[in-house]
Amino acid sequence: MKLRGFRIELGEIERVLMQHPAVQNCVVVMRTDSADPYLAGYLTVKPGSVAAVPDLEVFLKAKVPEYMVPSALMVLETL
């Protein structure tokens, strides 16, 4: 898919998120519910683990280009 002129593979972002030691499962989607489309990531954490959104953003920024880091990350109980 394309977002702001960049070709983005959502599965690639998901694969990188899954490399984080606390992440159990995740999905990344392009949201179009606002004037500007944006990436949103939803994830669950492994039992006994804690994942803070700022830490996940730093993790992603170290592994993918800035335009592939979701604007919104949400930690959920279940997916």
Structure description:
This protein is an alpha+beta fold. Helices cover 23% and strands 32% of the residues. The chain has two helices and five strands. The protein has helices at 10-18, 53-61, and strands at residues 2-3, 6-7, 23-31, 38-45, 72-75. Strands 3-4-5 form a three-stranded mixed sheet. A two-stranded antiparallel ribbon has the order 1-2. β1 and β2 (6-7) form a beta hairpin. The two termini are 23 Å apart. The mean pLDDT is 93.
What's the short version?
The chain has 79 residues and is α+β, with helices and mostly antiparallel strands.
How are the SSEs placed, and which strands pair?
Elements: E1 2-3, E2 6-7, H1 10-18, E3 23-31, E4 38-45, H2 53-61, E5 72-75
Parallel strand pairs: 4-5
Antiparallel strand pairs: 1-2, 3-4
Radius of gyration: 12 Å
- Low-confidence segments, ≥5 residues, pLDDT <50? none
Can you summarize the main beta sheet? 3 strands, mixed
β-strand number: 5
Tags for this entry?
single chain; 32% strand; alpha+beta; 79 residues; 3-stranded mixed sheet; two-stranded antiparallel sheet
